[in-house]
Amino acid sequence: MKLLILNGPNLNLLGVREPELYGTDTYETLCRKVRDFAAARGVQVDIYQSNHEGDLVDKIQAAYGNTDGIVINAGAYTHTSIALLDALRAVGIPAVEVHITDPDAREPFRRVSYLRAACVATISGRGLDGYTEAMALLIDKKAR
Ligand code: CA2
After folding, report:
1. 52 CA from centroid of ligand 1 (Å)
2. Which atom of ligand 1 is nearest to the CA of 99?
């Protein structure tokens, strides 16, 4: 089984800025946590971060036919990107939307998620654990 872990704009700054919102763990720590969990569950993982919407669309398209699940934290593109919604729908790969914080508890403009409609679940406000919870959900779904 192979999972794609996608992170959108500014998530490379984890642990560097705004620790009160996003915690003190760095992006590297997140990658290690994801890799360790994947190894423990015996799944392959591809981790990718970009600040550019088109790059994220390209990565989703490239997953077609070779990836069993997508964990996506599209950052601010969550609230704006019909292109990412269309890409997720186009490939038809089971996807779980993850947010480190709870966007519903923040500014009103964060309450809309364009991606939710293409995802089997949304996990919010669980910090970095949300990523491994999303991976577990996709692994269990595949086993069913
Ligand atoms: O809570 C989340 O994971 C978000 O997807 C994070 C996005 C935000 O636009 C969404 O509404 C909710 C922002 C990611 C920015 O990440 C940073 C991390 C550290 C320092 C600065 C930004």
Report:
1. 14
2. 3
How does DSSP classify residue 129? H
Domain boundaries, the chain: 2-143
Ligand 1 centroid to 77 CA: how many Å? 10
CATH number of 2-143: 3.40.50.9100
Residue 99 appears among annotated catalytic residues: yes
Residues 6+ apart with CB under 8 A from 29: 14, 15, 128
Name the residue among 48, 49, 108, 118 with its Cα closest to residue 83.
118
Task: Provide the residue-wise pLDDT of the chain in tens; the chain has 144 residues.
Answer: 999 999 999 999 999 888 899 999 999 999 999 999 999 999 999 999 999 999 999 999 999 999 999 999 999 999 999 999 999 999 999 999 999 999 999 999 999 999 999 999 999 999 999 999 999 999 999 888
